[in-house]
Amino acid sequence: MTHPAPADPPETPSTSLASLIGHLAATIAAEHFPTGDRAALRRLNPDAPPNLAFYRFAFRHLPQNWENRRTAWTALVAGIALMCPKPHRPDRSVGLTLAETGYSEKRLERLLAAEGDTLHTLLLRAARFLAAKNESCNWTDFAHLLLDRNPEKARLKIARDYYRNLKDHD
């Protein structure tokens, strides 16, 4: 009689999202990832039907039922691709990175207040801003902002990290 191997401890949703984001970023940024696919992912528009590169990537790497939140996943994948070659740094929160790179409070206010299509657009603008500054950040923060049913915790974390690291305030 064989005994089943002990099960791994269940991951918390936050831990599993963090590991998924790490996997997605590492995959898109990998040297062997097709450059044409990476370029196609950069051009994604969450408001438009996805291209084949997205479908190929999504069905291989995104979690089951990603289709239920397609526009959010599209924005997430496009943003990661925009920030390649080094899009993801788990040790640098989004708020910290935005504060240190001079992202304005006005832009932050609009990003954190946005929902739906507007959030997707503003998040991709933030990704382009960071890419232009050659910066990397923890994409798990952005993932929570896009994917959580109640993103208030994600908004608070980004704002807290931004204001704790903003040099020219008061």
UniProtKB/TrEMBL annotation:
InterPro entries membership: CRISPR-assoc_prot_Cse2, Cse2_sf
Instruction: Tell me what this protein is called.
Output: CRISPR-associated protein, CT1973 family
